[in-house]
Amino acid sequence: MSQRRFDRIREDTIIEFFKEVASIASDIFLKQKELKGIIIGGPGPIKDQFVKGEYLNYQLLPKILGLKDTGYTGEQGFEELVQRSEDLLKEAAVMKERQLMERFLTELKTSGNVVYGYTQTIEALNLGAIETLLVSEEFDWVRVKLKCANTHETEKDLPEAEIERQICEVCGEAMKVEDKDYLGELLAEKAQNFGTAVEIISTDTPEGSQFKQLGVLEDF
Question: Is the N end or the C end of the chain the one with fewer CB atoms within 10 Å?
Answer without folding.
Answer: N
